[in-house]
Write a structure and sequence with these properties.
homodimer, alpha/beta, Carbamate kinase, VC0802-like, 4-stranded antiparallel β-sheet, globular, lysine biosynthesis (chains A, B), amino-acid biosynthesis (chains A, B)
Chain lengths: 414, 414
């Protein structure tokens, strides 16, 4: 079981989470719990490390000490949940990242889990103890504290479940994965099941239910993950009502296949266009090498003929946070790259349809283009994978496009 | 070097502490720093553990999880000080209690340090690294987090100094140990040196400069401890001005012996009187056995003849927090103990004079009694040790008595 920052936000919410844990324990399950820090707490700790000053040029980075400070947030909630459960008469104990241990590499502030020797933890859980593990934190083989980067608690939860060979229930402030964001389309439906691949596309395309890396790990380790609401409470008899939720699992386990499972939307995009770029065959490669070396991820790419002879216009998209840096890189290399003008447009949105059924069905793209055209939505770029189609459009049309596609693929609730 | 909670209270104060550390490092010293949590933070964490609920009867105590929660406060300041020092160009690193390790027994929430293997920490410090150690926390031989009880950071600092065979500078919000509390007697003087024994008496008698256990440890391990103000800053050239302070050291190192070094006052006293207690020879033993078994410490004891035949009045003092429990214990045993009435008086204060010179000088007590009598202060009980005399008086006279004694023993600043 994993509880996020909202579910750990204060003592009353911690007690509610404890009641859900108790109900699960009462049903005979053996349980490990992964917890986030209290909502807002991690931001406060990060602000303090910022206030202690960004390292001046030439000085060593302090990411290892950032980890020491920031990891404390989950330590607090792990201890508090253990106390709360004991006061309900349950056998519970917290296990810090270094006690389990949750072994990570030494990429401080963005570490990756490399191993969780599950024997000690598993023996404790088997013996009937509810093990509480702070999410987000780990320890290097040399014994230094690490953190996994923001949102890392989901990854911790899946990794602990993998180490214990058990399924992973993620309790959060939504009750499952929806066909699209219900705040945009009120007819959105909760999906009972969704495949790892679909969830991965949805997570990376802007559905904020789960952190991408946690879904990758669940797929790699074949951990069944359920997304559930932490606002559902056991009734007076201590029984949990039907919890609904969404199971994220292997494609084979989904009997009723849909062509499209969901429509996602992301505003975290920026479009950069290089006008009048030389039509040398290696010019685009030069552009994308410079971006890759600076760790700027590029998503969509479109090249079109320019009006000037021997030049092209090259358009690409990046995450919005990377846009300024990408533009600086291009401007710094303007002489070598040989383009005439650069334009940045942040007033764009990416709308995508995702579904494993696309693999075996033709006509998915046509449906998309027709639905958008019917509403007068023009698209500026397209990218596809085996199970998704994304279009870049004017941000003003984003919600309209989402609703049009949701309806066109028959996802609207009746 | 040790910095308390006030000196770690916010980022600006942490920067000031860092400047003091940097000045010491610039003078060529090799340094380990022990830090407290931000002032107020430990109280917040303790309140959360209280809010998570005191264990109901029959349920296991959660002191181990209390330690997990509360130890996080020092973890945060250790990391923040390390970041701040690095940003000043210094080589610094935090060492958690479990990383050093600071090995304690498993008396959670009030653990005692049993060993600090200083090799790893010492090697790092010798190699020029400023080692930052969170105070107050440790780890059991089994690898569970412990805390030392309130004020434990002083003890951590002395223990780390002992492990590294170096002196211990305690930076705090006062600039040394005074002949008495300057808020009571403005003519109080800072002592340049004070012996371990004197400091121990003063600490346990109400001078709140250092935690008693830290002084005991310093005496046992012969660690020279200096109490210094953390409000003194290096000048523009990075040099520290004369820091003053008080050195707590072996009696032999104090050349100029004083008969009395200080006058202390404590209101944390309660007086309990059993009227008409049986004069059976074992009745007082029965009283004090009951109190000892309930861990109630008794300080002063006076027995006097009662008006009723075959009975005595027995008066004793306890810490104020223990008074209600002591009274309950007495009342519960009233039939067996056989007394007529119990009275509790919390309107009392204990005033004491402390000095190693008493060992070799007669007339110390007379001076005390005469000075009090001259001001019309009656005393209700007396207790003495080799180097101190304490009297219990009406609380209303406490400050008057302190000033009278400070003057009578020639401690007033000229």
């Amino acid at each position: 079981m994993k509880f996020g920052g909202t579910s750990m936000g204060d003592l009353e919410r911690i007690r509610r989470a404890a009641r859900i844990v108790a109900a699960e324990a009462a049903s005979g399950k053996k349980i490990a719990v992964v917890v986030s820090a209290m909502a807002g707490k991690t931001n406060e700790l990060v602000a303090w490390t910022d206030g202690a000053g960004p390292a001046a040029a030439g000085l060593p980075l302090s990411d290892d000490e950032y980890d020491v400070v920031v990891a404390s947030g989950e330590q607090v909630t792990a201890g508090l949940l253990a106390i709360t459960l004991r006061n309900m008469g349950l056998n519970a104990r917290s296990w810090m990242g270094w006690q389990v241990p949750i072994v990570t590499d030494d990429a401080h502030a963005r570490a990756r889990i490399i191993d969780i020797p599950g024997e000690k933890l598993g023996a404790a859980v088997d013996a009937g103890e509810i093990a509480i593990v702070p999410g987000f934190q780990g320890v290097t083989p040399e014994g230094k504290i690490t953190t996994l980067g923001r949102g890392g608690s989901d990854t911790s939860a899946v990794a602990v479940a993998a180490a214990l060979s058990c399924p992973c229930d993620i309790y959060t402030d939504v009750d499952g994965v929806y066909t699209t964001d219900p705040r945009i389309e009120s007819r959105a439906r909760r999906l009972a099941k969704v495949s790892y691949e679909e969830m991965l596309e949805m997570a990376s395309l802007g559905a904020k239910v789960l952190q991408t890396r946690s879904v990758e790990l669940a797929m790699a380790k074949q951990v069944p993950v359920r997304v559930l609401s932490s606002f559902i409470e056991p009734d007076e008899s201590g029984q949990m009502p039907d919890k609904g939720g969404t199971l994220i699992c292997d494609e084979e386990e989904i009997v009723e296949k849909r062509i499209v499972s969901g429509v996602t939307m992301s505003r975290d995009e920026a479009r950069i266009t290089l006008l009048g770029l030389s039509d040398r065959v290696d010019a685009p490669a030069d552009v994308f090498t410079r971006l890759a070396e600076a760790n700027v991820n590029v998503d969509m790419i479109v090249q079109s003929q320019a009006r000037t002879a021997n030049t092209v216009n090259l358009t690409f998209t990046t995450g919005r946070r990377d846009a300024v840096r990408a533009a600086e890189l291009m401007t710094a290399g303007q002489d070598q790259l040989g383009f005439e003008e650069i334009r940045i447009d942040e007033d764009v949105a990416k709308v995508s349809v995702v579904g494993v059924g696309m693999r075996s069905h033709a006509g998915v793209a046509q449906t998309m283009f027709k639905a958008l055209a019917d509403k007068g939505v023009k698209f500026q770029a397209i990218s596809t994978s085996e199970i998704k189609i994304s279009v870049l459009i004017d941000a003003a049309y984003a919600e309209l496009a989402v609703r049009a596609l949701h309806s066109a693929y028959g996802l609207d609730a009746i």
